[in-house]
Amino acid sequence: MPLCLHHVQWAREIPGGFHQCGLCGELVAWADVYPKPEDLTEDFRSRWKAHEATQVRAPVTAPGAAAATPA
Ligand SMILES: [Zn+2]
Hints:
The chain has 71 residues and is an alpha+beta fold. It contains one helix and three strands, in the order βββα. The longest helix has 11 residues, at 42-52. The termini are far apart.
């Protein structure tokens, strides 16, 4: 359903810090919803940000850390 607006009122919080459109089922981000979150209330924005902040990030590895010996 490519024509879905992903209206913010359909967006729901799902585990992992993501939001899902309740109508089409797609994962939606800050930039995908309608209307723009900038036009919404401060309360809405802080709730969205707070949930997004719980996102699980992939662990960062340090490749080449053992190859620092000079030739
Ligand atoms: Zn949608």
